[in-house]
Amino acid sequence: MAKRFRRVNEKVNELRDIPGVKAVALISSRGFMITSTFPPDFDESVVSTIAPSIMRMGLEGLKEMKLGKPRNIFIEGDGGVLVLTDVGGRAVLLAVVKPDANLGYIFLEMDNAAKSLEKMIGGV
User: Fold this and answer.
1) Please, which residues have CB within 8 angstroms of residue 28's CB and are 6 or more apart in sequence?
2) Which CATH number fits domain 2-121: 1.20.1290.10, 3.40.50.460, 3.90.1440.10, 3.30.450.30?
3) Confidence check: pLDDT of 89 > 60
4) Cα dihedral sign for 38, 41, 44, 50?
5) pTM of the model
């Protein structure tokens, strides 16, 4: 179990190293923080509560419009972008991104990471 958590942590940290990414978190679909690269003064409890709700709302909205499942959801603000990616319905991968970051590249890397993380946490 410790080895699996270490691999999950490493994958999240790899995303943090992408240019333009400020922080990354992996949050269970029930709202529990699995791991994050947030600074110590950041309130993780707020993000861990909100991220799965945003993902569920996106899922319901796309389902209602018959557009399939959400891959990436992003919310753009004045100071940056919040990017969320589903991890097999079991977790949400979240990245806090600078406003001038290459979102296409970040979406690609988050999709790849989500597939890897899904395999890693699949048996938990």
Assistant:
1) 34, 52, 90, 91
2) 3.30.450.30
3) yes
4) negative
5) 0.91
